[in-house]
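#struct-pred

JT: dropping the chains for the assembly here, can someone run the whole complex?
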Amino acid sequence: MRGFLAIYRKEMGHYFVSPIAYVVVGVFVALSAFFFDVILSDVIQQSFAMQMQGMRFGMPSQIDMPGETLRAFFGILSTLILFITPMLTMGVYAEERKRGTMELLMTSPITEMEIVLGKFLASLTLFAIMLLPTAGYVVFLYAHSDPVPPWRLVFAAYAGVLLLGGSLLALGTFISSLTENQLIAAVLTFAAFLIVWVLDIGRNASGTVASVLQYLSVIRHYDDFTRGIVDTSGLIYYVSFIFLFVFLTVRSVDSMRWRRA
Amino acid sequence: MIEVEVKNLTKAFGPITAVDAISFSVNKGEILGFLGPNGAGKTTTMRILTGYMPATSGTAAIAGYDVFNDSLEVRRRIGYLPEAPPVYADMSVESYLEFVARIKNVPAERQRERVADALEKTNIGDKRGELIKRLSRGYKQRVGLAQALVHDPEVIILDEPTVGLDPKQIIEVRHLIKGLAGSHTIILSTHILPEVSMTCDRVVIINKGKVAAVDTPQNLTTRLKGGQRIRVEVRAPEKPLENLLAQIPGAHRVTVERAGADGRVTATIETESGRDIRSQVAAAIVEKGYPLFELRGVSLSLEDIFLELTTDDAAHAQPSPSN
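RK: done, full complex below.
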């Protein structure tokens, strides 16, 4: 436990003394703000058009503006995350291996599990910090909505984005533990993300294979969360995804002792 | 009391055997020197002792704990400085040492005191707030040393602790290591012979993964005294000089080389075991009337000792059975 805390604190310190955290968080905040603005004006225009239509044909407009905005915004967030998380995880192990500090960690009285959990939870914390400014947009949206949409929508969406991010971070840190080269780690991570992303390519196909692939797709379950639905199968999917890759990372770190030549 | 015990330790990387059935032991409070050329297997042995990698076969135990089966217990009791100091460039010296103290299980209330002690012992207190990436090579090495001491471990394993230091720092570090002996058991590796004779109680000479000799530095030096060399600088014709020197009783092999434009040559005379023939050499040269510019005994370099131990003197190449 103490080893875990020491690693966690060191990782957090590392994120914030190096420029990586600031650049990544900064870019993320700027892009998400831009997309929020685009989506909002888009939805407003759409609702105007709907209202005009409603007046012409004498029907009341039925558009759920805040819900529509949230759904589109969190959809865009998932795409941003896809591009940004490989940059957060690429160096997690690759850099320690390259600089020889892995030798210090592995000859210290701490377990591989403490190392892996410390690093994974630190990256998840940074990810959560990165998401924090987006809460501002949501508050803005709620302050100007009438009637106020149910808060369940926001909680579900944030739970979804944290679970999705956690899964990608677990996969990314695992890949980082396989190589000494940060760039290779980043490229492989990105490729792996794309694969788990597009597994639901047969979204509309039927049959056992298609439904299995759909279940395995990392983005499929996310859609439910952005609609305000916390689905148990989605929850189980993400939690097991995270556990699987944390476990694999522990095995990979452990096997460094054998792989080294 | 034996603190570190290594028996038939072997490590193979695929077809290459880096460490080949080595055995030795270290007593509590002793400084053991691990001497060998680059690639002899020193680092691999140390990495196995610290639990960084497993051995292919054989056993090693520290304080009675097997380095493989009781790795965590072993790792609690060792301080380790790898070849390259394992430092985080963007941390300050002090926060780095605090981090190491934490992962080495130093209790929170003793942390401050232990970090201060390590800073003082390695003489880097004035750099405590400095980022490690701004430190010179020598300072980084000392931070690496401080890291190995911060939890006051029973056994300290140092892989080439004086590499990259300037002569003054080397002397300081040797003093520091000597000061740590007694209360700590120390294993250090080096490829510098004087380092071993100055700091170590016992030496393991390792070559091509095998133990070539285990002995005290004094015994090793006497054993190797036979390998004296004499170098002279004379103004003399090459051939007659060579013949002259070769006739001196005790001269083993003579090589003569032209050294300057004014007819000066340097001659190297290898002598037989245990004979000091410097005065005979001087007398012979003076008798012939050759101007003598320099005459000195050259102590053997490590490479020569290896030649001696691995080729010339096969009997000595066996580790003594008592070890």
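JT: nice. Chain B touches chain A at residues 13-14, 47, 50-54, 72, 75-76, 78, 80, 82-84, 86-91, 95, 99-100, 102-105, 147 (CB under 8 Å). The two ends of chain B are 14 Å apart (CA to CA).
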